[in-house]
Amino acid sequence: MSEITAPKSPVTAEQFADEIREQLKYAQGVTVEQATPADVYVAAAVAVRHHLMDSWMQTQHDMVNGTTKAVGYLSAEFLMGKQLRNALLNAGLTEQYNAAIESLGFNLQDVVDTEYEPGLGNGGLGRLAACFIDSLASLGVPAFGYGIQYKYGIFKQEFDKDGKQVETPDYWLANEEPWGHIDYNRSQKVSFGGKVVKEGGKKVWKPAWSVRAVPVDYMVPGYASGRVNTLRLWSAKAEDEFDLLTFNRSEYLSAVKPQVKAENISKILYPEDSTKEGKQLRLEQQYFFVSASLHDAIRVFYPGESKPDLTTLPDKIVFQLNDTHPVIGIPELMRILIDEYGYDWDTAWSITNKTFNYTCHTLLPEALEVWPADLIGELLPRHLEIIEKINEQFEAELKAKGVGAVTIKDMAIYTGDSVRMAYLATYGGSHVNGVAELHSQLLKDVTLKNFSDVYPDKFTNVTNGVTPRRFIKLANPRLSDLITEGLGTDKWLSDLELLKGLEPLAADDEFVRKFAAVKQANKVDFANYAKREYGFDLDPDTMFNTMVKRLHEYKRQALKILALIARYADIKSGKLSADDVMPRTVIFGAKAAPGYYLAKMTIQLINNVARVVNNDPDVKGKLNVYFPWNYNVRLAQHLIPATDLDEQISQAGKEASGTGNMKFALNGAMTVGTLDGANVEIRERVGAENFFLFGMTVDEVDKLYADGYGPRKYYEADPRLKAAIDMVADGTFSNGNKDTYAPLVSDWLSKDWFMTLADFHAYTAIQSEIEALYAQPLEWNRKALINVANSGYFSSDRSISDYLERIWHTGPLPALA
Ligand code: 26W
């Protein structure tokens, strides 16, 4: 079934075992007998890379020498997850690997478990980038992912004895990392600071200091495409490592200062995922990887040319700006074209405009980056000049289009003391897109309304997607086999809309029972995994109800925990008799940005509700809450296939899209959710009768804001809500300490910006509908199967096809011979 994608001689398990044995000996100096699972993991990874090398080189060659425009995906985050299994699947080497590892006398899982998950991202945006580069390679489209090789990824989360989040450094490079190839010979110089002088009538930037950007290249093998793209992550190194003179003056620390200053740039990922971080180092990071990437693209597509004709650049590569984080790339390309290659402003502008496109991933005003002008002026003085000139040109253009002075002021990219990166991206690029239909509409109607009025053709939508290779085939092999059995082909893995063929089988009780058995077996697996990894005792015969995503007030984990407390109180008070309670296991997963006070308090509350509920004999077997720490891609791959009910309960108009919602629907979970982000499109496609909808719509939310929202009214009016909040306030979940959650309770009763209290009644009301259906397993699984059958649209392959058609206007390389 699996074909070798690498145009390299097919490899047998024996040959693969030999290659691993050879690698262990000549590169790692150990015999098979001496080798540890970690040694074998490295050797196997290298062997897979060797098998992909031909395709990698072939893809590079065809990209540079062909006429197919490439895609450059600029992202400050790539949340790739563990690599070995994915590389084996996409390279078509899984069987050979399994047989080879066993023949060498090792346990498959032991070897896979030694891989450390690279956490070079916070959440949705970073994972989307990873799914997108998998789809670009699987569709055979030539592409580069360009980002930062952080030494420390997203922090490791632990919980202390009070259930509080504790962050520890994620030193993922502590062990050998076999996938990244450090290419010192293709480093780029990136400069900072200094001043701009006039020389011969031309503006010349005299930077104060510079660093070396060293590329670390990762192969991105496509599934069944025979193509292998590149993820190029930049690592900062000092130009001159060490100041010996200072050292000899025994000023040891200042001798290494330049090195530390340089390497600081790619030291650590900023753990904020929706609150702008105005720190200089963050801007240094953004400029560092974008400048290195633009220079690298010119090196790659104009090999050996000192005076390349860069007017052709937009025909060779189109760049996608993954949110505002890489937008400094627009003035940087202008600087490169004008200062380094001598192009005039207008030529440079038309090249730049055609080269860039911007994807917005948020609706939260606080997440839209606005950089203080003096910070840009100090770090990038030439860029501030160029931004000012872009803004002048922009305002002149708006005036010429008859836009009013007030609106022009509102639309200003440069306000005199700050630079609005979303506005710069919208004017500086040729397309702007949101990540779900509702989000893209709100961008046009609200967030970027003025721009949409003036440049309507720039605005489009591309609804997010997820890769079926990692999130179905790798995460849920049982379901994958059942799908292939039901459809009679495994072509669905590269054409996910084929899942539609499963719909008729929803009427076949036999098949639905097989589907239910898959879910049950996955739940048993997860219960064993949770026992092994967390010491939790989950009962697979209860409903597994999951809420996993970053901790943020707009995502409303508070709504989930308050409804859970209300249910606990109902059972405790006997209002709900034990036998009419549907046994439920609620599983949370969430990291909070370290500086996000209320988010961290919510984590503490969830952990303490879990402690109290799980140890209360009155609700034993009826309600359990678990919060596995350090939610990451690995945990997601274990938990999503085992979930019956997924929570997508954000306030309408706040979640740009969501991608977890897609992963759960594709893995046969039912969703309870609001009309927000991509939930709207999921419900449209799976059918309203197969989706548990509740809560206010965007319009109802806007009306309530306009009318003035008083959360306390809801607290007074709903006794179950009042009881739940009072239990949080009265120390029930803090060993009697009434102050522990006081800030949270007072926020709920005085502000509650995301209207948790207003949607509480609707949310608790729908639970009975959910439990009524869950009490009919066949009907529940029939509807869950229909969710799977109708979620093929949410493949990242489809998203990429939309980008190719609507924004990038390019496609796959010619098929391999
Ligand atoms: C400046 C700090 C910062 C860092 C990251 C601000 C904003 C971000 C990201 C845009 C936040 C993010 O991950 N957004 C999520 O992007 C997903 C992929 O498009 C969407 O599915 C989620 O709805 C959105 O919250």
UniProtKB/TrEMBL annotation:
This is Alpha-1,4 glucan phosphorylase. It comes from Bifidobacterium panos. Keywords: Carbohydrate metabolism, Glycosyltransferase, Pyridoxal phosphate, Transferase. It is an enzyme of class 2 (transferase). Its EC number is 2.4.1.1. PROSITE patterns: PHOSPHORYLASE. The keyword DNA-binding does not apply. It catalyses: [(1->4)-alpha-D-glucosyl](n) + phosphate = [(1->4)-alpha-D-glucosyl](n-1) + alpha-D-glucose 1-phosphate. The keyword Glycosyltransferase applies. Its cofactor is pyridoxal 5'-phosphate. Phosphorylase is an important allosteric enzyme in carbohydrate metabolism. Enzymes from different sources differ in their regulatory mechanisms and in their natural substrates. However, all known phosphorylases share catalytic and structural properties. SUPFAM superfamilies: UDP-Glycosyltransferase/glycogen phosphorylase. It comes from the Bacteria.
